[in-house]
Every structure is written in structure tokens, then in C-alpha cells.
Amino acid sequence: MERIASNTLSRNVLIANQGSLSRLTDLQLQLATGKRINKPSDDPVGIRQSLRLRAESLKSDDYQANIDSSIAFLNTADSALSGMTALLQETKALAVQGGNDTLDAAARAALSAQVDNALKRLVDLGNTQHDGRYVFAGAATTTKPFALSAAGDQVDYSGAQEDFSVQISPASTSSVSQVGSALFQQPADMFQALIDLRDALAANDGNAIRLMIGEIDAAHDQVVDQFGELGGRQQRLELTQNQLIDVQINLDELVSQIEDADFAEVIAKFQAGQIALQAGLQAGARVSQQTLLDYLQ
Amino acid sequence: MPDALIIGLSALQAQQRSMEVTSHNIANVATPGYSRQRSELSSPVPENGSPGQRGRGVDVVAIRRLSDGLLTEQIRKSSTEEGRLGLTSQTLDAMQAVFNEPGESSLSGAVNSLFSVFQQLSNNPESPGIRAAAVEEVKTLTQIINGMGQRLEDLRNDLGSQLSLEASAINGLTKQIASLNSEIRRQVATGSEPNDLLDQREQLMNELSGHIDLRVRIDPVTQAALVESSGRLIVNADKSVNVQVGSSLDDLSLVFSDSGESLRASSGKVGALLTLHATTIPAVIDRIDALAQTIAFEMNAVHAVGVNADSRIDRFLSQTIIAGNQLDVDLDSITQAQGDNLGAGIPEPFLPRFTDINGVSQARDLTINVRNDATGIATKYIIRYEPGAGATPAGRSLQNLIDVVNTGSGGGFSLQPPQAGIPGLTATAIPVDGGVRLELRAANGSSLDFSRALDTRPSAEAWNAGWTGPAVDLKGRYTGNLAYDPANQWRMDVVTGGVIGDATAPPVVSFTWFEDVAGSPVARTTTTTLDATFRAGKPVPIGDGTYLTFASGSLIAGQSLDLMVDGNPDQARLLSALGINTLFQGADARTLTIADPIRADPSRLAVGQSRVDGDNSNILSMLGLRNRAIMPGGVTTDEYLTTMVADVGSQVDLTKRLDSNQSAVRAALDNRRDKVSGVSIDEEVGNLILQQQAYTAAARIITTAQENIRTLLDLLG
Predict the structure, then answer these.
(1) Residue of A nearest to B113 (CA)
(2) pTM
């Protein structure tokens, strides 16, 4: 039979109770913070994943914010383009009307004034702003892109030749503000078509007026094309947005799975730990009190 | 009948002595290191008599101390390991706390916030508010990195003060062991049994073995303990050797006071302190330093070549100080002295790169754009470094750089196109404390930048003879990365003359240029007819994002223009090295800060790569760094950071597990020791009862003997 020294008993009780207590402290911290991982050593593998996923999720937040502002920007551009198509259709009607040689010079001069008016509205549409920034000025978002020259014979573009773009995913950027001269002045120049029509009407030159119908058609088609392309871009952004949201929901779920404490499990463990501690304390108290002396007179 | 009296007396004395031993055991039930004692009783050699032998009672022959020598050695070894793991675990815990992960105010949180505010800035590059917010985030990041660097350094320095506490604890213990040795020897020599002193000494050696790893030998004759550590007797009988902390602050060590040799503790608390100080903590500091340096270096390289639309900087002063006597030393050889952050020189990771990976010097370009603020016309000057043909590469010192700016040549540097210095730009070495700073100052009314922005008015009239045509402007953003001659030297030839934009006889131009096809230059020729589509003011596309616009006028056949693009304005990363137009300054985690000029004026945060007012391309480049494997080991910043945190976490976790494992081992050893040496009250009380009864019985013998004698005396009476 083994000898059991009096020390052994109290040492064992102490060690067991300290173990229970430190487990309870851990569990209590988990309950208080709601987190399973409160410091890296709680789960070195988990913290690595959760930090990485959290960074991904925050990146995704940023991309979504970028896409939101891009979509708002593109919506403004979209309504400007639809205004332009309407205006160009209107002008085409004026050109068809003006091309009729039964009209006299005065009637054509009146039409010319209408075209001039349309031209000014078209330039205004070209200078559409969203949130204080020009949507057709390329990267030069604070520079007014289009202006009728002093002589009134051409529209000058002073925006930038590069798009303004923002990141929408780790690998791709999306143009927000586009280069206006590439949209409206090349290859067909809608401003120039209106200027030439206006001048032809003023000059009462039937042939020249009829020639401009084709030019305006070309300009109109070009704007319609841009319209379609813009719609495609908006769609693509929305698609990316949806993907980002889907991925983010997954990411957040994963982060939560890794980091968050499972309350049911933690509480169950906590109760089990409490019972163990109490039992240990009681048993320790009883056993260590008893010696042979208790039974001697 | 006197024998019975003598026998009874010997029994009385023996039982009394035994009861003393039992009481002593009970009294020491809770004394650490106490070994229970037992009185060894034996009956003395009997007298020969007839019939049979006559017993002579009982003697206490010895008071034995019950202890297991093998176990004591195991316990000492366990103490050593426990000392090492306990201290390591505590220190690593403190180190882990420095990281403050997971959390918002941690390093990973600050990196996330920085990139997030940069994303916002990319949406509103012209906004002064967001630029100021971005500068604040940069400051927060540097403060967090500084704090971590400083706290880790403090933690490391604390180990030094802990070691001196260890030294005095060790000295105290060895001294006590030595004095116990001499006491024990004295008592052994007089034939007594110094049981309690042996226990005390064992306990002290246990304590000592928590500090350092020991080998103990007990002299069989004198019972003196000889304690050896690191191949040296630190306790030799009644003499002990003192230890003290070595004098070097950088390499922490414990040395013997007499010989100055170092005590190479591999375990125990001292071993833990030395390992933590020499390897564990420096390894983490190195990783944070590398993180700080890489972020600074990569961000600086992007920032230095950035520019803002409204930037009117006419003077750059280098953050880096070059010692006055090193003006003529090649810039890539002026390393900043280690640990001397205030000293002159270039922090090693930021040294300019004039050589390839094989150490062979290479040609390098540095672009300087000088802009006339009144006209907005910017002219691109390229400072080219050519290593030359000889065995020793041509000079690339600060003085050479100053000379090439001022005179057009200096060491291996020359100007492209060749000319006598950059017009309107002066380079000066400004004396400051500890050396000089490089100053680049533009003439009044002009400003400087180092961007890849195109020459707005190319090939300044000065160096292309014969151009009499209308003014020409380069527009757009060069998207290629080509930098070297001839890849960045483009040319326009007028093939057919005529009035620009003429409907019937328009002029024809052809561009000879190099397209960047996956980094390699591919020669291209583009011919464009400047008809109504390209009338005056309309951009004529060339390639890779570049355009040319003509003022109205006519072109003459046979005329030509040289155009210059530049995809890599600072190939040697000279600007980062000298600290010109950088985002960060400082050499390591503790000293990293935002660059002074940007701290003073957040509008100097360079968001673009051209002077177009909404250009956010430089911010996009900095954002792009996040997804690039720029960190040591070929990983991204995020991966590097998370791996570092996870590594610290698993180190702590592992040590804690080992530590608690060791505690369990120790408890088991203690329990085993108690089986032999521990006091059991039940047992002692049992013994006490027996001894008491024996004592009572012995007393009875004496009473009986006395009665017998009285009976005899009565007979005589």
C-alpha cells in the first residue's frame, strides 16, 4: 500500500481547483466579450483566418462604397445622355423641316435660332455635374469640359484625356467620369453638326441643310451607342455589387463562426466547470479536515 | 534486579526521543522541503548469561531522514524547466498583449483604416477634408507601429533588470548553500546528524535550480554539496562564486564576478531571459521593423513620383542627412549606422538601387519636371546615370547629383537631352546638424515634381531645330512602364503639309513610338490624317494613353518633333533614399513617422501622377500595393501581418501548454517525493499512540522495579 502524505492531499486539491478556476475564467471572458478568440493564443490558426477574412470583408465594404458612388454618378450621366438623344431627335426634325426649299430665308433664320438654342442646351448637358463634379470631363472632374468658342464656330473640350476611375475589386477598376471629347466629338461631332446646321440655316443653303441631316443622324447614333454602353457598365457594376454582397455575407458569417463564442456551448461548459469546482472545493474541505485526531479522545 | 530499572530507563528515554521525533514531524507537516524523520530503535548487544542472554533494553541508534536521492535530482531538473517555461510564458504573454489583436486599435485595424480612407480619397481626390483625414490615418498607423516597436523594446530592456534580480537571488542562494555546507560538515565531523540542515540545503538547491541549470554532487565523507553550472563550480564546499550582469547592454549576459567568463545558462529563469533577450523578442522586433520599412519604402516610392493639380512646390529639401565628409561617396554606400537613428546616412533598406541583383551597376533614370506656373507648361528633364565601361563604376555621389543638376554632368550622371544644367533649377547642399541636406530649388514662378506626367509642351523649342509649326501639347496619361532610350524617345514626322483640319488637303503626320507589350518595347508607326475630325484643339491619339493636340495653323512636310514619355520616373529610387517628396520618414518601427512636409501641409499628399485636377492615379497605385506581394517572403501586407500575429499566438499557446504540462510533471514528482518523505499526520499520530503506550509501560517497569526494591528493603528493615 502507498503512503499518502498529508501534503499530497492539499496539493492535489489546490492544483485541481486552480485548473477549474482558470478554465472558468477563460469561459467567463468568452461570455463577457461574446468572442471565442480574445487574444491570438486562444486560437492561432483561427486568428489568422479571422484577421484575413476581416480584412477581406472591410475591403469589400470599400469596393461597395466605390460602386455605390459610381452608380449614382453613372445615373446622372445616363439622364444627361437621354436628354441629348431627345435634343438631337428634335434638332433632326428641325433640319428636315429646314431642308424643305419652300421655306424662305426668314423661316430658316427662325429655325437657325432654334438650333442655336438647342446647341446651347446640348453644351449644358455636356457640362452635367454630379455632386459638384463634371461627369464628361474625364479625370479633370472639376474642369468645365465644354465651351462654345468666342467666335461661336466650334465647341472646345478642356477636360482630360483619361478616365476617372476607382477600384471596384482587387484586380479591376471602373471608369466613372468619361472623356467627353471621345464620347461626343469623335468620330462624329454632335456640337459641330449643330453649329454647321445652324450656320447653313442662317445662310439659307438648302443643300447644306439637307447634308447635315446625315451628320445629325450619325451624332444621334453615336450618343445612342454610348447610352447602351453606359447601361452595360451600370449592369456590370450592379452585378459586381451583388457578387460582393454575397461574398461579404459569407465572409462575415465565417468571421463570426471563427471568432464568436457559441453561447449555448460556453454556458454548458461554464456550468459543468462550476460544478467541478464546487465538488472539488467541498471534497477538499471534507477530506483535509479529517485526521486520526478527530477520533481520539 | 537493577537491570529492570536500567532497561525501563532506556525504554523511557528511547520512547521520549521517539515522541520528540514524531512531534517534530507533525510540527513540520507544512514545511516546504521537509523530509520526515524516524528514530531508529535497536536493542544493544546483550550480556552473556546463563541461561540465555540477558537483554539490556533499547537504544536510539539514529534519527534517520527519509529521502530519495534520485527523486531529488529529478525535482531539481523539473524546477529548472519550470523556471524557464514560467518566465517564457509570462513574457510571451506580455509580448502578445503588445499586438492588441483582435481589435480595432491594432496594427491590422490601422492598416484596414488607412486603405479604407485611401479608397475614399480615390473617389474624391480633390477633397482637402478627405486628404486631411488620410493624413490622420497615416499618423495613426505610424503611432501604432511606433508604440509596438517601443513596447517590444521596453519589454526586451526589462529583461535586463530582471536578470540583475536573478543575479542577486543566485548570489544569495549560493552563499546560503555554502554556509550550510560548512555547518553540515562541522556537525557530520562531530558525528551528529544534521537532518534539518540537509533539508534546508536541498530546498535552497531546488530554488537555485529554478534560476539556472545545475549539477549537484554530494561529498560522501563531508556531506558537502558541490554545485556546478555552466562547467564551473559555483558552490565548492563552503565557498561560493558570485555572478553579475555582463557589461554589454546590447548582448545581455550573466558573468562570474571573479573570472568575467559568462555563465551559459540554457534553462531556468536565466536561460529563459537570455533566450528571450537574444532571439525571441528581437525576431518579433525584426518582423515589425521589416513591415514598417517595407510599407514605408513601397509607399514612398509611389508617393515620391506623385503630384497634385494645385501643387506649387518650388523647393524640396531631403529628409535624409548626408555627413559632410561623405559628399563624394557613392549614395548606395552611405549606410546609416545601426541603431543611430539621428545619425547621417541612408537607412539600409532605403539605399538607392544602382545595381542589379548580381551587383552589377546599371543605367538609371530620374525624371524632374520643371513647370512654369504662369503658362502651365511643364518640361521634362531626365538625369541619366551610366555606370561607364571601366571596372569601377562611374561616380554616383551626392556631389555628382548636385553637379549634374547645376552643370549638366557629374560622375556617371548626365542630362537627357544633353545640356548645361537644368534651366531654372538649382541643387545645393544645405549644412545642417550632422551633415548636409540636398535642396532642389526652382526659379521664381516655377514649380517642381518628379511625376510621369507628360511634357505638356514637348521638346522645348530649344532642342528640336526647325520646328516652326503651331504649338503642340501632349495630353493623357502614359499607361506604359517604359523608361529607357529608345523606348521612351518618340517622334512625330510631318509626312504631308497642309492646314490642320482642312477638309480638302489636310496634313498627314506619322508617329514613331514604342508600345509597352508586357514590359517590352515594340516599335510602332501610326499615321494620322489631320482632317476635320482632328481639327485644331482635337486630341490626336498616339498610343498607350497618350494624345497630341495642335493649335490652329499649318504643318510643313519634313518637319519633326521629338516627344518624351517616362513610365518609371525614379528607377534607382533615389527620391525614397534621399527622402524627397516621401510619405513616410524614419528608419524602423520605432522611428517611422509621416514625412514632415506632409504633416505640416496635408495638401502635399500626392494623389495623382499628372497635374489633371481630378487625377487619382497615385492613390490607385498605393491602393494597388495592398494586393501585391511586397513583403519579405513574397507575401502581401495582410498575409505578412496575419502570419506574424498567428505566429506570436501559437508561440504563446505552445509555451503555455508546455508550462502547464511541466506543472503537472512537477506535481507528480512532488507527490512521489511525499510518498517517501512527506509527513502523514495519521501515521505520526498512530506512532505517537504506540510510543506513548510504550512510555507508559516503561514507566510501569520502573515502578515495578522500584516496588521490588522496596519489598527487599522492607524485608531488611
Answers:
(1) A58
(2) 0.85
